[in-house]
Amino acid sequence: MTASGPQNPPPRPSPRPGCLPGAEQAAGLPVTVVPDDLAVDGVDEVLKRFLGYDVPGLGRLEGGHLAGDGGDDTVTVMAGRAAWTVRPSPREVVVEDGAAESPRVMIQAAPDPMLRWLWGRAGDEAVRLTGEQAWAGYLRRMLAATTQ
Questions:
Q1: Low-confidence ranges of the chain (pLDDT < 50)
Q2: Contact 95, 102 (CB under 8 A)
Q3: Alpha-carbon gap, residue 147 to 145, rounded angstroms
Q4: 95: which of 36, 52, 80, 146 fits an S-S bond (Cβ 3.0–4.6 Å)?
Q5: Domain residues for 51?
Q6: Does residue 97 lie in a domain region?
Q7: What is the distance between the alpha carbons of residues 99 and 65, in angstroms, rounded to a whole number?
Q8: What is the CATH number of the domain that holds 64?
Q9: Is residue 21 a part of any domain in this protein?
Q10: Residue 21: what pLDDT?
Q11: Could you give the number of structural domains in the chain?
Q12: What digits encode the pLDDT tens for the residues 4-15?
């Protein structure tokens, strides 16, 4: 058995019903609200399992990187009461539980809209951005590169 990490990421889980934002939209069906506990789990999953482990995806980042190599810049994502700190760099992204003290941007929403926003299934009107909006766009670009 090998340890998981950037060199040996764990297998990505299969999508669960109600946790694949946009599938209903694509099928022309009414959109079902994802329950808070499941949406928080989905936010954690996309940040830690996709963004935190797809190092090759960072090399395909459209528009380049805002963060330097030090990992000193942070983005805070808050879905309801749950929070994560994203520490991006051109070579890796570290995702930690909890909010950063002085993030470049704080992105807040209820769990369902946050999950949809992270997957690019909702626009910026679904979340509240506090701080440098370019860093919210940077997070979305990193997610697009690592969830393909």
A1: 1-5, 11-19
A2: no
A3: 6
A4: 52
A5: 41-146
A6: yes
A7: 22
A8: 3.30.1050.10
A9: no
A10: 52
A11: 1
A12: 445 555 544 434
